[in-house]
Q: What sequence folds into this?
């Protein structure tokens, strides 16, 4: 059996882009298990894809090939394959998408630029390297082919890194932003549980959640949705480790607050109406 | 080869929830075939998921592990694995989601609560038992591991059952509700073909379909979409056995009637304009 | 190992239709790899499905079974399996969906009508032949079963062919239509790169893109998205070989032009404001 490929992209599934990459892998690496981690990364959002990959790493087989594609500059970026210091293999564009993941594992051991004509499906489409460059490279690695076959070694210090927005954590106050809104309307913030502790807000009985558009809520910290009655607000550390604003069914937290991805949110202790 | 896992949820595919469960299964049960039955169950709708599972059972390998997750009370419900009287294995929350399926097969032979630390991915996220409890349990069973490894046996009579809305079937009249609207606008009702016969409406030349919001149509019973000309209305037993209101292309039946899931629909004989 | 099945449909993934076909294949052809090429073909659009399949053929294993389902007349059309002159196997409705694909490969060698009771899942639902006829037939072929087992041979010249809309290519002018709009708002036209050359428009410095609804843009020919600055318009040959109207992030070309699938678009040389 071949090694698995874990595939992540912003392709969505309305078009055939994911499917044709699967077809290419099926052709080049017969029997290769392909795990679709997600193809719902917001279009062109390299940071969101990078965070999702890094957060998911503990749940991915160590010997799987990670194939990640979010590439606003397809046709301009280098296509790379990377082995990190723990021996994991990654394939994707050189735009920072992979960088948080390899930092989890001690950084880059070896990187190559995927240019070998024995790998590429030619003619390479200028706008679909996933099909013609990245999927074939991942299939090669899944079959046990050496990294060096893909193309020339490149210096790790020339690889792009993604800049992730960090929250401003102060005593009693956090200024952060919305990472994502999910299917249930939960508002994922770019704040780790440990940062809530660092601000001291975890000791507040109730936390005021405010947004620039005027939406606000008063929430208590909870472990899970089921801790909330209908219409009650909570702050929960979500399964990926991010603080999320949630509201008891049937209220949709994101709609009620009026926020979308990338927008600012402020957290502070709620002092009540008479304070 | 491992046994298959057939996976059903209300997770949608915008987020990585389905994908990370696949990654966990790929890690714990290498080579396990995973069939995604559907991840489009309406969010938190336990009844819809339960019906879909029970209706699909005849098309699922008998030796597959069924992994089903629709769990508004995640973190509160017990997580269970069940072997039914026919020997099928199910993994899911103890909220009734699995109950119509096991009733198809003579009820529960053995049930266990999934609590074994050798199975759980710890720390278990309070809000994502699918990843940390249910998928690992399904992977264990797919690898041929015994049910008893998952945790202590629980009494079948303590398991939750789902209550499904039943139509009111009278001579010449059915009061029912909308189960689902599909991609083509077909309106699936909670009425079996046999119930149409029981009401005698199958003998009516034309059937009046009415809704509380004022939408109505006059339909004839047909076998398939292709029996309808453009704009003609029909009542058809759909592939899952439910009566559905359909309309010949390009009319969208659901939009034209103005109905959504859960709403009431009345069926009666059409007596024509002069009656 | 069984042969692969490559599966294409207009089913979407909101309902369980794709999933239950997967379950049937898993039951009848254990371990069969199934590649979902796309289930996002616009509902009932046989031409769009037919083009997608033909365009994707070079990326699909030669020994894979192609299972394609876009079938507005399900229950009326014959269900067929076809071996083309190159030996590829196709399963689908006899409505032209498969015809552009087999023409790529020299036409039909053998065709059969799928009617054998040893193949059908009975009772066959009048409205879901994908589950009860086509998926079982594909599974049979994937297991290495002979074509002849499926049912009687039918004459290739009785098979339906799809009529595809062709652009009107004149010197300095192309009248075409929108094939599809993708996730990034790119407008795919029914024009091949070679037809742009045939019209001489490839030699125009800038090309005027006009629509009946009044939307227009002035575009230059480019190789990929990354060649455009924000708000700049381009005409690019997309990865499937179709000319596409694109616009530099964050402008959505389709929304800005106000076009949808099937609508007319005119291309001509831009003569500038003073011409």
A:
């Amino acid at each position: 059996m071949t090694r698995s490929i874990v595939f992540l992209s912003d392709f969505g599934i309305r078009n055939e882009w994911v499917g044709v990459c699967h077809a290419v892998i099926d052709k080049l690496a017969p029997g290769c298990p392909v795990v679709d981690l997600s193809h719902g990364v917001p279009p062109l959002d390299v940071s969101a894809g990078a965070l999702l990959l890094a957060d998911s790493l503990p749940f991915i087989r160590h010997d799987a090939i990670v194939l990640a594609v979010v590439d606003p500059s397809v046709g301009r970026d280098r296509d790379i394959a990377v082995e990190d210091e723990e021996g994991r293999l990654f394939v994707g564009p050189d735009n920072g998408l992979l960088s948080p993941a390899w930092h989890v594992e001690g950084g880059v051991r070896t990187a190559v630029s995927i240019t070998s004509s024995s790998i590429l499906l030619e003619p390479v489409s200028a706008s679909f390297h996933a099909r013609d460059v990245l999927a074939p490279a991942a299939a090669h690695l899944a079959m046990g082919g050496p990294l060096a076959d893909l193309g020339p070694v490149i210096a790790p210090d020339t690889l792009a890194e993604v800049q992730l927005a960090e929250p401003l954590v102060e005593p009693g106050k956090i200024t952060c932003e919305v990472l994502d809104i999910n299917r249930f309307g939960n508002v994922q913030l770019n704040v780790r549980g440990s940062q809530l502790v660092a601000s001291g807000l975890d000791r507040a009985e109730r936390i005021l959640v405010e947004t620039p558009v005027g939406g606000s809520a008063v929430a208590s910290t909870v472990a899970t949705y089921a801790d909330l009655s209908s219409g009650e607000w909570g702050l929960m550390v979500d399964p990926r480790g991010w603080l999320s604003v949630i509201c008891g069914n049937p209220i949709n937290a994101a709609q009620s607050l009026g926020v979308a991805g990338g927008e600012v949110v402020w957290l502070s202790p709620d002092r009540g109406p008479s304070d």
In short: Residues 209 and 217 of chain C are 5 Å apart (CA to CA).
